[in-house]
Fold:
Amino acid sequence: MKFIIAFILTALLSFSWALFFPWWIIAVAAFIVAALIPQTAFKAFISAFFALFLLWGGQAILIDTRNAHLLSAKVASILPLGGSYIILILVTALTGGIVAGLAALTGSLLRIPPVAVRKKIAENRMD
Structure:
């Protein structure tokens, strides 16, 4: 259940904040969601990755179909993608997914105190 909530919340925050802020706000949204919703580091990464992969991929497909693949085909011919607009959309979706996934991983690992801190806490409890 936490996975689905984190997935939806990451996608919604990323979409709404990206309307007003730069593109990298997706990392901030994924970080905050992962820091507030306790999950394992792997689940936090996967939920944020797929949320942004689907969000950016869906947005890229929607924009691309509205202009009959003209702009994406030209950009794909400039980049070493062989002129394939489909690969350009996949690269776009992967970029968003990786950025959000790594930010969520960082937010999730922030919840886990380092070993030295845990040992210090354990020593103080024994006193």
Observations:
- The longest helix spans residues 41-66.
- The mean pLDDT is 90.
- The helical segments are 2-18, 25-36, 41-66, 70-78, 85-110, 115-126.
